[in-house]
Amino acid sequence: MAVDPSGAELKAFFDAEPDAPVVMLNLLRFAEGGRELYQQYASAFRETITARYGVEVVYAGDGAPALVAEPGQQWDAVLLVRYPNRRAFSAMVADPEYQQISHLRSKALSEAVLQPTRPW
């Protein structure tokens, strides 16, 4: 199951509208013991990354039983994260301090969806 974006996916994301703001939908399924690791990641992310790149966690919450979903589509947690633009996201993932904490996210998750969105 996918947890981290691939190089090709990241390149396509960065090449499309690099100056447009983006809100990233994060759907997270935790590995066993992953919730605690993800909390460590989230704490370090807030302390080191958010102000540096103008990132705002708009919403973070636990998933509840789905009202409409196919089997296996229920998620443990949902986040909405606003980035001022795709360039900021690109700079963030290249930041050495982010790279030092990103392994916590990868180990915490068994599956994830990162869905960029645009305002209507």
Automatic annotation (TrEMBL):
Using the record's annotation, list all stretches that form the DUF1330 domain.
36-110
State the protein's name.
DUF1330 domain-containing protein
Its source organism is Mangrovihabitans endophyticus
